[in-house]
Amino acid sequence: MASVSSLLSEEQFLCSICLDVFTDPISTSCGHNYCNTCITHYWNSSDVCQCPLCKETFNMRPKFSVNKVLSEMADQFRKSKQQRQTSSTNPEPAEPDEVSCDVCTETKPKALKSCLVCLTSYCDIHLEPHLRLAGLKRHKLIDPVKNLEDILCKKHDRPLELFCKTDLMCVCQFCTESDHKLHQIVSLKEAYEGKKAEVQQMIQERQVKIRDVRRSVELSRKDADRETADSVQVFTALIRCIERNQAELIDVIEEKQKTTEKQAEGFIKELQQEITELEKISSELKQLSHTEDHLHLLQNLSSINSPPPTKDWTKVNVHQSAYAGTVKTAVAQLEKTLSQEIEKNLHDAELRRIQLYEVDVTLDADTAHPLLSLSEDGKQVSCGNMKKNLPDNPERFSLHANVLGKESFSSGRFYYEVQVKGKTDWTVGVARESINRKGKITLSPNGGYWTIWLRNGNEYKALAGPPVVLPVREELQKVGVFVDYEEGLVSFYDMETRVHLYSFTGCTFTEKLYPLKKIQISSCFM
Q1: In a domain, 133, yes or no
Q2: Given a cut of 60, is residue 304 above it in pLDDT?
Q3: Cα gap 178→411, rounded to integer Å
Q4: What is the pLDDT of residues 150-189, one digit of tens each?
Q5: Are residues 457 and 363 in the same domain?
Q6: Number of other residues whose CB lies within 10 A of the CB of residue 99
């Protein structure tokens, strides 16, 4: 807590009779204070009992009691003054980063205040006249600052006490009457508080940004984890496909080899049988080889006359399986299979990813054409042959049987699905908020629509300026619509076959987008 001496000047503790600090002070009924001894001697030496300062006269000498509060304050002031006088004889020098007294010549103590009029910084002792003398009391004192000349106006040599918000600079009072006349001028305190609030606002904005960045990193990590899981799934499927095809190729090669081995075994068996027969003949010939009657030998050798049936083996060869091109053919087939597998797995991974952004679309009755009727939950729409009597509000479509979703999207990603099974004419997609809803509509990105449609039961097109025919082989049952606002992307998918149909890319979205459903008068969907 601040001491008495730092809050009050010495004059407030001086008795106007003895001109010294109060001793046993008393207070008169007129509000003035004196030492008890001083006022007693003063009245003892006078015939009239009156206040020395205001001359108020008292008919009877008042009886006083010592003003204990004032007495205690005077005692504290007296002690504080004595301490200052004692310390002034051996003051401690100011630290290097502190403002020192400009008046002290030897040891430079820490300054207590700086005077904007004197352009001088004072220690406790040298500040005392500014606290006591009436003329110096009017000077503006501030917390001690170095280089006091820097807080003076270079043009008028007056303190820079104001701030010009127009030119964003500190000015003096004279500046407001000349160069900065009619400018928005505020006090330095107000300017400081404004700047403080502005900086605080900037801090808060950056703290919010930090949270957004951290959230983006968290979302990115989740996306990365999902992408990693998808990649593992895709590559695992591809590896299994390669292993399966490799096993099939090995089986084919082994089967061919088995066929060759079986054929060779048949040839060997047949040859061994012929060798056995021929060995029997050879044995008989050896037995008859000792006779010299060759006529008898030849007539009696039945085996020679009727030799066993044998094959002409000179033209018989083991059929070697043709392996040339087997691997090439298998790899070509594998490449085709892998391409199909990759496309299937990538589409599945992509659809799983975008389905994470699925939203629940509720149709907005205020936008529906008068021929359309919405279900109570706003999820289904049907059309009739008679217009309902509805207010022609600005949001409602007046010519085409369109209806928008209640939910709008101006950032991020969203996905929704539309049931189109059994319908022969429909349009689905998204539309910007400012589309024309009264009169003829052009379904194209330039008109604010990003859509695909079915006409005449089999004409599927993406309405991208010049329409693009969609390669749809079977009737669509359910259409998925995915939008990435920041990427400028609108994609459509066949959710039954899980095939990508078409994407609008490079779009520039600057306003809210709404899910759009359009039906022909004779059709309905959802």
Answers
A1: no
A2: no
A3: 51
A4: 788 888 878 888 999 999 999 988 899 888 988 999 998 8
A5: yes
A6: 21
Q: Which residue has 């030849």 as its token pair?
A: 298
Residue pLDDT, tens place only, 75-92: 888 777 666 655 555 667
Are residues 300 and 293 in contact, defined by beta-carbon separation less than 8 angstroms?
A: no
User: What's the token pair of residue 368?
Assistant: 């529906």
Residue 139 neighbours by CB under 8 Å, 6+ apart: 115, 116, 117, 118, 130
CA distances from 83 to 15, 78, 157, 180, 415 (A): 21, 9, 38, 49, 80
Instruction: Quick: pLDDT tens for 348-406.
Output: 778 888 888 999 998 988 888 888 888 888 888 777 777 788 888 888 888 788 889 99
Please name the residues in contact with 362: beta carbons below 8 A apart, sequence gap of 6 or more.
377, 378, 379, 405, 406, 407
E runs forming strands in 287-391: 372-374, 381-383
Nearest to 178 by CA among 151, 153, 142: 153
Is-contact 378 365, C-beta < 8 A? yes
Find the domain containing 269 and state its range: 219-311
Instruction: Tell me: pLDDT of 204 over 90.
Output: yes
User: Looking at the chain, how many residues does it have?
Assistant: 526
Residue 37 β-bridge partners: none
- Helix or strand (DSSP H, E) at 424: none
Let me know whether 387 and 285 are in one domain: no
